[in-house]
Every structure is written in C-alpha cells, then in structure tokens.
Amino acid sequence: MSLQGVAVSNSSLLQPGFSLLNFGGHVFFFGQKGWPKRSCPTGVFLLDIKQNELKMKPAFFSKDSCYLPPLRYPALCTLRANAESDEYQYIIHGGKTPNNDLSDKIYVMSLVSKNSKKTTFQCVEKDLGGDVPEARYGHTISVVHSRGKSISVIFGGRSYTPLAQRTTEKWNSVVDCLPSVFLVDFEFGCCTSYILPELQDGLAFHVSVARNDTIYILGGHSLQNNTRSPTLYKLKVDLPLGSPSVTCTILPGGISVSSATLTQTGDTKFVLVGGYQSDNQKRLSCNTIVLEDNKIEIVERASPDWTPDIKHCRMWFGCDMGKGSVLLGIPGANKQLISDANYFYILRCKGPEEDKEEELTAQICSQTSTEDPGDSTPFEDSEEFCFSAEANSFDVDDTDTYNEDDEEDESETGYWITCSASCNIDINTWVPFYSTELNKPAMILCSTGAGHWVHAQCMDLSESMLLRLSEANVKYFCNEHVDLNKGLQTPKKVLHLKKQPMKPLHKKATMKLTPPVKKSFLRRLFE
C-alpha cells in the first residue's frame, strides 16, 4: 500500500459525504458542497489526476436528463444487465441536499459519450411503487443476481424524526431507520420490504459487499445504542418465478467500525480502509476481505505509513476511486498551522506487481483507443479547475485556477436577483418549478424602460403562458409595471360619425324626399 499526498489549493467543494463514480477508468466527482454554480451547473466533475496535480473538468447532462441535485451521503452502486456484463450504470438513492433536506428519489446515471473535451451523462429518475423506502442518508444499496434475474437491495441509514414526534428543541434530530430490507425491481418499478428477526437494530454508515445472490453487511453505527456492532450479517436473496425470498444469517468475525471505505483490488478481493472504531478514535488499521461463493474471509493486513497529520487529526473522510485506490481527506481546520501541508491523499491498495500489470493494460488500451482523433485535444484552461500540489509551481497569471472567491456572486446578479418586491427565489432553497427548468429559475424580460428580468414563478405565470410568451413576438410587462404601462399609453384616436338629425314622422305626415336622397340617407342610417 502506498500513500501519496495531494495538496488542494481550493478544497471547499469536497466535503464529507461526497461520492466518486468510475466509468471506464475515469473518475467523476459528485456531491459538492452547496448548489452548483454556472461554471458547472450539473455538479458533476471529471477528476484528472496526474502526479501531484488534480484537475476538475465539468461534465454535462443530455437534454433528456432529469434534474439531479448535489447529494451527500447517498447510496451508490453499479447496475449491470447481468453478472458478466462489462457495461454498467450507477444507481443513486437518497442523500442530503445542500438545504439538509433528505431525498427519497432514486436515479439511474449512465455515460452517453466521452472524448477528451466533453463528457455527457444521462440521468433518469425512476418511479417506484409499493413499499417505497423513506428519505434517508448513510445507507447502502447493492445489486444481487439470482436465477438469471437482478434486483437491488436497500438497507440501513438515518432519517429525520417523524413530524408527529418532533419538538421545537429537537426539530432536525435524526433517528435510525427501521432495520427493514427493501427489494427494488427496476424492470417493473416495484418495491417490497422485509422484516427479518435477525436484524434488530438500525444501522448507518456501514459497509455492504455483494457477490452473486449474497450480500454481507459489516460494521455500522446505531444511534439508539450508540454502538458499533462487530456482528457480520449475511443476506441471501432468492428470485424464483414467484415472490422473492430473503434470509439472514449472523456470522462471527465481524469488525466494529463505521464510515469505512471499501475498494476492490481483484475479482474476489477487497480492502477495507479508514472509518471510526469509536466517536473520538479513528480506525487506522486495514483489512483484506476475500469473497467466495458461500463464504467470506476477513484478515488484517499491513497498514500504510500514515503521516503525522492523519494520525493526530480527529476527523477524516474518503471515497473509493475504483481500481484499488481511495481518496482520503483531512479537514483544513486541523492544518491551519502547517503552511505546506496536504489536504488530500491517494491511497493505492494494490501491490507493485498489480500496479505494473494495470499500467501495462492501460498502455495497451491507450494504443487501441476508439476516441475520435479530431476531439483528442488537451484540456483548455477555461474549461477546467486546477488544483496544484505546490502553490508556487506555476505562475498565477498563466493558469486559470478555480477559486470560489472569483465565482460571480449570483445572489446579486444573473438568475438569483431580487426581481420584485414579492420575489421569493433564494439560491439556497430554490427547486425547479417548471418542467423546462434544470439548475436555474426561468426568467422573462419586462419591457418597461430599458427592460429588466423577472422570475416567471414570481409573476405567477403558468407553464403554458410562459411557453406562449417565449414563442410569440410580443412585449411583456411584469406585475409591478403592467398598470403603469396602461396609464402611459396614448389613447387611440376614435373617429366619430357625423349623423344628420332626423325629423319625427307622424302618422299623417309624409316625407318629401327624392328617391336618391332617401336611399342614401337610409343607407347611412342602417349601416
């Protein structure tokens, strides 16, 4: 195991609870702090790590994608058509939004296209019925394969106290979710929950690893008992033609740990890194986990040479990068007195022989790349954020370094303005209102004076009216200026018809008009 330090010039985006996705050896960052900015409206970044330099390039979503908020502490796993398939998608369930709201939605994210300049994903929200899991975070989702079929399994996590049980003092307190096992069938869109007698306490921030039709649940923290149970659970899922069945077996040899990171180093080998063995004590030891068809073996392995910063800090966090590597982070508050200290570390759990084999494979793959040569140009500085290992290794004037302080303040300009006295659009609480919105509110131009932009939602515009105004070539006036505009309009000149007076006709009176005059007069009278 080797540990490499990576200093980050601006680490505010990467906070505990972030996630990493690996598509074909390329690592993508998801779950940033705060809502996405204009520089990357999707909130998904491609990580390009070379030596001591980490660059982040914004990724894009296809036009038919749904809105995906930045979620921290969600449940992630890969979904394959079958156990032998090389193509896969990512399932994202639950998590915390930047407003600390919990999500109960489930998304399927797949790679549409990628070249050296642009990566495009498709994100689809799945509609589920039946026993749908409640909103939660700190849980796990796994995929098992049985009898030629696949199904997802959700377990554990935490959620907010139910509304009926909340008090003013503990309004946002969290509790363990019930220890129910949920089976989610994406083909038919249905969920089924199972209550197993072996699972008595709720668990959060545990580790789950699946192989074929079996899931092993290791570690986790229980709020109710404030314990990290060393119990090892084995869930076996059977998918016959009828109803699925789930059984649970308690095994010895578990590990008392929470918030650990699991990375795969081989077909049946995994490495367990990090986490906590108590509230105030990190777990610095590592373990190798070997899965076979019907058994699991957990053995302790040699730990890397942890730096003094890692040993003495109270908190750390990380995520699996794939291919046996883990990205570990230490909060900056612990390192304010150290000027040249690194914030992030890359822990490689594979041995030297495995690394050489992987490097040789990567070279062979690079020689047979299927990317379009015309698109294989270097990253442009304007399209990526640069995190340098050494602050003095480049000239600031020559490098477009990302800094949140340089980000345009969207609370005063752009889409996050106060458009009117009744404006209620807030960048921290806004969610899409119209189906055409993705990551910013819809706006419309008021034609008063020099013109100004207002939010369509603040103007109480229906979606059909908003689409009609965007397509029609007409002027629009906001609610505050529509009456003023009517008052300033010059009334149109109305032409009044000059009518000749008529003499009253009596019964005995007769009209002495010539026929031509009589015809024209009657024509003017009745037209």
Structural summary, described in words:
The chain has 527 residues and is mostly beta strands. The chain has a domain at 18-305: 6 Propeller (Neuraminidase). The chain has five helices and 33 strands. The chain has helices spanning 308-312, 352-367, 463-471, 482-488, 515-526, and strands at residues 2-6, 19-23, 26-30, 44-50, 53-58, 60-61, 75-80, 88-93, 106-114, 119-125, 129-130, 140-146, 149-155, 158-160, 174-176, 180-185, 190-195, 207-211, 214-218, 232-238, 245-251, 261-264, 269-273, 276-278, 281-282, 286-291, 296-301, 317-322, 325-329, 344-348, 385-387, 443-446, 452-455. The strands form nine sheets. A five-stranded antiparallel β-sheet has the order 2-3-4-5-31, with no helix packed on it. It is elongated. It starts with a strand and ends with a helix. Mean pLDDT is 78; it is low at 334-342, 359-413 and 509-514. Zn(2+) 1 binds at residues 419, 423, 455, 458. This is V(D)J recombination-activating protein 2. InterPro entries: Gal_Oxase/kelch_b-propeller, Kelch-typ_b-propeller, RAG2, RAG2_PHD, Znf_FYVE_PHD. Zn(2+) 2 binds at residues 446, 452, 478, 481. Residues 414-491 form the Recombination activating protein 2 PHD domain.
